[in-house]
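Session log. Operator J.P. requested a structure for one protein chain; no other inputs attached. Running the standard single-chain path with token output.
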Amino acid sequence: MHLVAERAAGHPASLDALLLMAQLVTHAHTAWHDEAVPRHARTLLQAAAALPQDERPTETATLRRALVEAGEIDAAQT
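Structure written below.
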């Protein structure tokens, strides 16, 4: 799964990449847990959050929420 996460991390303006990554983070605590998934998800979130407000997909909040709920970032981050 880390290859999928790595590829998605390169597309911060993509709605699909943000939603896919949120799903990977949400389900990363299953048997196939891959430590690289949360790392790539944090990279994607940082890149998406750095986009100008009018270019930032609303799905950025979905990924942020998934990372917070998974305990991968603090709610105060980004």
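Operator note: The first helix runs from residue 2 to 9.
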